[in-house]
Design a protein that fits this description.
- By secondary structure, the chain is an alpha/beta fold.
- The protein has a single domain, classed as 3-Layer(aba) Sandwich (Rossmann fold), CATH 3.40.50.720.
- Helix content is 33%, strand content 19%.
- The chain is built from ten helices and twelve strands.
- The strands form three sheets. It has a seven-stranded parallel beta sheet with strand order 3-2-1-4-5-6-10, sandwiched between helices. Strands 7-9-11 form a three-stranded mixed beta sheet.
- Strand 4, helix 3 and strand 5 form a beta-alpha-beta unit.
- Helix 1 crosses helix 6.
Amino acid sequence: MTEKTVVVTGAAGSIGKLAVDHLSRRGFVVHAVDKRPQARVPQGVVAHVADIEKRSFDEVLRKVRPAALLHLARERRFTVSAAQRYRVNFEGTTRVFELGLAAGVRKIVFPSRHTVYGALPDNPAFMLEEHPPTAGRTFPEIQDLVAADLFASAMLWRNPEAEVVVLRPVNVLGPTVNTLFSRYLSPRRVFTIAGYDPVHQVLHEDDLAVALEYALEPGLKGVFNVTGPGEVPLHVIVEESGAQRLPLPEAVIKLVRGRLGFASIPQGALDFLKFQCTVDGTRFSKATGFAARHDLRETIRSMRARRVEP
């Protein structure tokens, strides 16, 4: 084991691939873990086919004995059952933490998302890390992710000898990343809710990879919001991404989402098209020196490389 040996779970996913590629280029000894075979990995990266829910993952930890664990394995699809999402996203996370700590892993990084705070009409302008994650009230489809975030945050205090880092990055955009917000923006026609234009924050996928690297710094621990180059109204994001914006009544959107070439998003996500959910990233910037390298225009326009036909 070396100080720069890291196990990355969910390595075959879009964010996992970004992390594995970036960390390998930055001199980390990367062990990429996913239950799916990984066709190509960067030179020097060791790929493991292992499921975090099964004994195969235990064996990887025993064999590798990493200094750090970056837990990215998620069930991101909303088309699967709530029980399956809960099993992977919450129960899988608790298992990764418990096995990692038992194996002597000194640092565990859990990237969550800023949406756990929820989009509510009475949200403060910029929420700090102490603001309670309340998305489950209006967005029950991600209650499993909220529960995993709260569990990971609690592990920070229950295991003071370990370095637990929980990141809550804002909306990640880019040509390869697969998130709910990037999928929403991908069609050539993008609906917004008529009469609403909430402010959103965005982060380029390359900047997310840098933030993940910074989270692995020895000595860092805590819960951190991760912000990008700024914030703009939703209509600016849609139009700068190269899409045609169609403001529609909410009742109509409920009928056309997932049809007629429009993105399919869960019912609970509609509140994020109405109300602001913006966060303060000062704590992470001060602790690590992190600053977004891509400006707002670059970040938003990076979506143009992935535009799909209806």
